[in-house]
Prior knowledge:
heterodimer; A: alpha+beta; five-stranded antiparallel beta sheet; B: globular
Amino acid sequence: MNNLDKSSSNGMHPSLLSAIEHLSFIVIDLNEQNSKILDFSKGAEKVFGYTKQEIIGKKTSILHLAKDTKNLHHILIKIKKTKQPIEEEFFLLRKNRETFPAHFHFHPYYENKKVIGAIGILFDLSEQKAAEIRFNQLFNNMANGVAVYNAINDGEDFEFVNLNKAGQKLSSANIKEIRGKKVTEVFPGIKEIGLLDVFREVYKTGKPKLHPLTRYKDDRIEEWVENYVYKLPSGEIVAIYEDTSERERAIEALRINEIEKLVNEQRTQELLDKTESIEKSRKALSYLLEDVNESRAELKNVNEQLENVNRELEAFAYSVSHDLRAPLRHINGFINLLLKPENIEDKDKIIKYTDIIAKSAKKMGQLIDDLLLFSRIGRGAINLNEFSLDKLVKEIIEESKPQINDRDIEFKLSKLPKLKADRNLMNIVFSNLIGNAIKFSQNKKKAIINIEGSNDESGNILISVKDNGAGFNMKYADKLFGVFQRLHTENEFEGTGIGLANVQRIIHKHGGKIWAEGEVNKGATFYIKLN
Amino acid sequence: MKQILLVEDNPNDIELTIEALRSSKILNPIDVAEDGEIALDYLLKKGTYANRKTSNPIVILLDIKMPKLNGLEVLKIIKNNPKLKRIPVVILTSSKEDTDLIKSYDLGVNAYVVKPVDFEQFVEAVKSIGIFWVLVNESINNNL
């Protein structure tokens, strides 16, 4: 610090020296071809990162990149030439090889009117520059428009100083064209919407003000704008604004949406109401349909019953025509044979033919009785009474004695229950079944007839009548209960073919079921199930 | 002389029919099957007829109302059997029902005759059948 020492010896105040020491300055020797560093302040140490000891005596080229044309070296040459102080901004190099912008203020010093050195005071601009860059970036990249104006005639009008990219885009203006132009020229509508007054007010008071959302319109542009206006310390007026058209459109869209939503909600409600009422109607309809279906099912039931009755009647008429005619034909036929001249003296034939005639007449009577019974069962109501089936069966067996005659028949009765049924009709049922069992076992040396009662798990009564007689082939089981259907010829077993049809009718009238199992020559079993 | 097959369950009708045929001077042997099952056994030479030596009957007189298989069921089987279908079948029945008549013709019956209640008319009817089918008609002489 010899030079400074010299200075201090020239009468500088020590505290000033100390303050100067904290500035960044360097003293450069310009005596020789290559300028060398003579002194390096504490401030300079901070900025460059070198210590005083390190740097003193080094060439000044250490402080900048060789490629920098506007470098320290050229400035120092210029100083030598001009012998004038120079202020310059250029890039310097720190010890860590980082370059930084700096503002240099050089003052030459002389000896015998010759520049022998320079004192350079430098300001590290890196912070400032960064802020500037950041500002520029912000200024140019922000979505809001930023306009900077200078007041003309104490705020009578304002001229454009700057307008950022967003502003240029929003206002469809180019800063190169409008810089220096009056705002009232560029935006003729500015007065009308009151924004010019806001500029004036802010210019006068210095207080920022918001100019609320307004519809701006001129020959060129039309948009919704909102301006935030404030005054810079420099006196310039800044207006920050944005094109709210998008926002407005969004808001309008939102409003439309709201309205649509409301309408939709209303419609939805109406729709819901309608749906509900339709649903109600649908339900009502479905109930109605159910009723109709029920009625239809009932009708179908009745229809089926009618069809059954009809079928039975048809079968009945058919059978009557067929079966009643047969004995008539026989009577007629055998009387004719009986009266033939060649037979009139033949006693055996007379006996045979008259027997056939008598039997045919009897058969006819039987058919008529059975048919009458059949039709009576079809017509009559049933009379439910509780009675002992055991007692009824025993009565029937007792009444069958003439039919049994001297045959060997064993009746086995087991667990016959009390029935709640029409006793007269059940008499017909069991008379038929027991009669059949006796009849179809007539060729057995010893007939065994089992009549059994039992209960199934559902509480139904099951009664079976089993014999060890002729039985039947199961493939004809469905014909057993048909009117006039027979599985045996008259020669084998007599019968009208109505008995089991009657039995089935009675059981059905009681809501029960009847079926049979059998095997040829091994017997048949008839089952009755009653609830 | 080829035999006639009478399929009839009622013994009185059997006797009356045979009587009627005999009084018509038709002397062909008459075989009787007393129900539909027996008739099929006879025709197909099965069961008790397994050893039947005779040829197919010249005509089958078939009652409808019979135990087990009825006449219509027997007719259906005959007309669906390649070896039996050409045998003339005459339904001889008490039934005047249209359904029986139609079904018989549908099944391919060759004639349908209702048994008259009056014996003289019955004899006349059987006589006509006999004369036509036994004496007039030419049947195919094929055997099983």
